[in-house]
Amino acid sequence: MRKKLLLLLLPLAVCAVPFSKAQTESETPFNAPDELRACLRTQPKIQIDGRINPFYLSGDFDGDGSTDFAVQVITRQDQHHGVLFCFANGRTSLWGAGVPNAVLKDGAWPFDSWMLIRKGSKHLSVFPKIKADAIALIITDEGGGLLYWNGKSLMWQREE
Q: How far is 134 from 119, CA to CA, in rounded Å?
């Protein structure tokens, strides 16, 4: 009986060791690509905001043909929400998260979902000034808008 119990518990013990090791070695509790982790290390005042799934998107946000990342973040000190763009060339741009703009009043984050909108999609055909992938930030039953890179800075296009 004792041997049978040990045989049943041994696989559980073996599975628990690698799982706990992975959690302690990780810099963040979130499963993120290495490029995104490196980008976040350059921004010590912010951290990943995992309230909305997925917490990051990948696309070609600057139109250079390389994969860029956008991650939802929150400031460590005052809990202001935003989006950090991590471009493949090493450049970063922060929208919200303590950086003032006309859309986010007093650091409030009204959005409850987001999604990638690919360059060339029918959705972007009515916005000829958007030349690369964009992000739709959505407020359920209210609308939202598109967040995109214009070559110099992040821009907002409201949608109803």
A: 7
Tokens of 130: 């958007």
Under a CB-based contact definition with an 8 Å cutoff, are residues 83 and 70 in contact? yes
Q: Which of 52, 48, 62 is nearest to 133 (CA)?
A: 62
| Least confident window among 5-19, 44-58, 117-131 | 5-19
Which structural domain range is residue 136 located in?
34-159
pTM above 0.70, yes or no: yes
Question: What is the token pair recorded at 41?
Answer: 């290390």
Residue pair 35/19 in contact (Cβ under 8 Å)? The answer is no
Is residue 153 included in any domain, yes or no?
yes
Q: Round the CA-based radius of gyration of the chain to a whole number and report it.
A: 20
Q: What is the pLDDT of residues 5-40, one digit of tens each?
A: 334 444 444 444 343 333 333 345 568 899 999 999
Total number of domains in the chain: 1
Q: Give residue for tokens 């004792």.
A: 2
